[in-house]
Amino acid sequence: MKAIQMSSFGEPDVLKWVEIEEPEPAEKEVRVKLHYAGVNPAETYIRAGGYAFFNPDLPYVPGFDGAGVVDKVGKGVTRLKTGDRVFVASILAKRKTGSYAEKMVCDVEAVHKLPESISFEQGAALGVPVTAAYRALFHRAHLKPGETVLIHGASGGVGFLAVQLAKYNGAQVIGTAGTEEGMELVRKAGADVVLNHHEHGYLEKVQGVDVVIEMLANVNLEEDLKVLNKFGRIVIIGNRGSLDFNPRLTMAKEADILGMAVWNAPIDEYNESLIAVEAALKNGGLQPFVGTILPLKEAAEAQIHIVSSRAKGKMVLKIAED
To answer: In Å, what is the CA distance from 268 to each residue of 93, 225, 277?
Structure first.
């Protein structure tokens, strides 16, 4: 089968289009014939080498997210069968052969059914972004129905899904984006209020926030604390530098500042999030938005693009015809 494989760490040109053997599923594993694979910034850090969370053995086929059809099941698999439409979220799977390929194998717990209402390209847009959104909202912030959540960067891969999950669970949602196009996407996701985060003083329009989902903490953290309610929670998903701020801002409101990384999720919480996502897809609570689509052969270009542009929605690689 065809796949993208790297035999050394380095720049994007280490990603090669090669022919490799099809992986075989072992007990409680599933093989999926992929139609699309998701592209995540973490995959660029892994490719470069020295990534703190994951340093694979070489040669290595990248990719944690994908969608397609179950091709073969291992012994002991009863929840899925050959021919099922599925999405794959394998970042914490014990075995993951990589989604930048025509076929991949991983633990059955990381493979979930994809309803007919969700396309394969949308299914590939789940994985890392949706589990990050779910963990931030519910495992770290413990968002409750009726609370108000401010989601920065709500037009991006994680933010767009976080808006929908929060609305589906009864929260009031304020979402931000940096362009009119991005703001329209956030409205379509269901946000109650949409703000332009490039507009001077935009957070002056915000009052009474219980939870903040923060994508750029070095820029926004101090202002987040000012709009937060007493006992509010800020979950940091993204950061690109350091900052100097007065910690006294946390004291008056007894605010919690929480870090978040999907890699740290206990496996039971991770599996719980995938079950909840499958239910939300089935019941209409999630409609992933796909941005850029590139062919699998252009995986190197995709990895350049994912870290150098302000993406709207999720970038995916096309592997097979729908």
So the answer is: 12, 31, 14
Confidence of residue 217 (pLDDT cuts 50, 70, 90): confident
Per-residue pLDDT at 313: 73
**Tens of pLDDT along 66-83?**
999 999 999 999 999 999
Place of tokens 């690689």: 317
Structural element, H or E, at residue 219:
helix 217-227
For 218, the token pair is 């070095």
Report the helix count and the strand count for the chain, using DSSP H and E: 9, 15
User: What pTM did the predictor assign?
Assistant: 0.94
Instruction: Assess contact for 303 and 46: CB atoms under 8 A.
Output: no
The span from the CA of 207 to the CA of 223, in Å, is 12
pLDDT digit string, tens, across residues 22-37: 999 999 999 999 999 9
Note whether 38 and 315 are within 8 A (CB): yes
> Letter for the amino acid at 27?
E
What domains sit in the chain, N to C, each tagged with a CATH number?
Answer: 2-126+288-318 (3.90.180.10), 129-263 (3.40.50.720)
Q: What is the pLDDT of residues 143-163, one digit of tens each?
A: 999 999 999 999 988 999 999
- Alpha carbon dihedral 228, 265, 127, 215, in 10-degree steps, equals 30
Task: Give Cα 195 to chain centroid, integer Å.
Answer: 22
Give, as one character, the DSSP assignment of residue 19: E
